[in-house]
Amino acid sequence: MIEFSIFAFAAFLLLVITLWKRKSPAVLRELPALKRLYRAIGVSVEDGTRLHISLGQGGLLNAQGGSALAGLAALRIIAERTSVSDKPPVASSGDPLLGLLTQDTLQAGYHAAGVDELYAPTSGRITGLGPFGFAAGAMPISANENISANIMLGHFGAEAGLLVEASERESVPVIGVSDNLAGQAILFAASQEPLIGEELFAAGAYIGAGASHTASLTVQDILRLLIVLVLLGGAFLKLAGMI
Amino acid sequence: MRILTAVIAIAVGLLVLLGYFFPQIVYLQTIQALLLNWAMLMLAAATLVGVINLASVHFNKIRRREKDNLFSALLVVFLFGALIFGIIFKPGDAMTRLMLNGLILPVESALMALLAVTLLYAGVRLLRRRADFTSLVFLATAVLVLIGSATLPFGNIPILTDLSLWVKQTLAVGGARGILIGVALGALLTGLRVLFGADRPYGGN
Q: Pairing state of beta strands A174-178 and A147-155?
């Protein structure tokens, strides 16, 4: 019942704050990495280079589904903004279902930009199944496809190190974040502007995905504050010998 | 059509979710199990589509004579070779297992070994790329934990071993929990957006 109550409370907050955010402009704190991502989208259109968006190998039928969906939401906006470029974006993933949704999302981005005819199904790729198969398949993209930035949003484990290394060799900047602690540590060490954990879910709000994304950030902040209060309260009660 | 796909996706999502929240309602459990079984079937079909996608990407590279197309040719040959091999000998056969143990596992182990070197190099480059306080703390912690965990030729240094244990069991666990709570909240809200139809990563929306 506690789980359902948290879910219902979060749903209620999200609905109310989304309606509120539609009327007032979003004020977001500065995250250099996401600012860089926003700039990379513009640069790729202007100088005719490609963006590589990698969504990792998180499946949709397990706990990594959230990060996969957050990556897809960001991909939708990036595809819409860069589809008119001479070199449209390439998206890679390491899970079959995520791969299908990647293609669908890219196609939706092209449709929204009014350039359906430019969409190529091979721009959404399943580069391999399993962590190292996925990394081995995605590594050559930086070298062979005129990539200006590697954007890694999703579930990456230690194999993220191989992808980052391949990017570094071609002097392609990496903007990356993972919901996995090993992948997160590697991306923290390897990127110029690090993103940490939950900032994966903020990407959509920072690149203009809409009111529901900015409302999500506010709800996350409220829930986090409540969790902090519960933890502190629990620690205090334990210290006082009341529990 | 787009509205129909959204209605189906939201309804299925809600039914599966309610099955988790109310395990005592048998009817919901039955529906949840049925829907998850369908999802597993679709996953199998999606895997086949994924393999076709992978093959078509590399066929295109070979056809256009793109850079590194030799590797693409090798991939296609081994992909179909492994497929035919698996169909003839079946997945449980000793020959198929030999192929897995003799080819795939050594390649993955090699990539893992390469990763160890890559990570060491990334650590060294970190200070050149971003010489700030957090990078210093990150590197100092990594070095401390490595020295504290490794077997040194002159014997372990007790204070470093204790400090390393404290960092791993107290600081690192606290930090990891903080990150995981943030990720869980983000995943919850992302799921809610999909359930409300605000994000629709399906049906070309």
A: parallel
Provide the sign of the torsion angle of the four alpha carbons B149, B151, B153, B157, taken in this order. Answer: positive
> In this complex, which of A10, A130, A224 lies closest to B182 when CB atoms are compared?
A224
Query: Which tokens in the block code for residue A17?
Result: 């704050």
As a whole number of angstroms, the distance between CA A222 and CA B2 comes to 33
This complex has an ipTM of 0.91
Strands across the sheet containing A50-56: A124-126, A90-93, A50-56, A147-155, A174-178
Identify the residue among A126, A162, A193, A199 best suited for mutation to test binding to B, counting B beta carbons within 10 A and taking the highest: A126
Rounded CA gap, A44 and B123, in Å?
29
Contacts of A197 in chain B (CB under 8 A): 178-180, 182-183, 186
Helix (H) or strand (E) holding A98: helix A96-112
Question: Phi/psi at A93 (nearest 5 deg)?
Answer: -150, 165
Q: Give the mean pLDDT per block of 10 residues along chain B (205 residues).
A: 84 90 89 92 89 90 86 90 85 81 84 83 81 86 86 82 89 91 93 89 70
Q: With CA atoms as reference, report the closest residue to A57 among A199, A176, A200, A153.
A: A153
Q: Domain-by-domain residue ranges, chain B?
A: 1-89, 91-129, 132-199
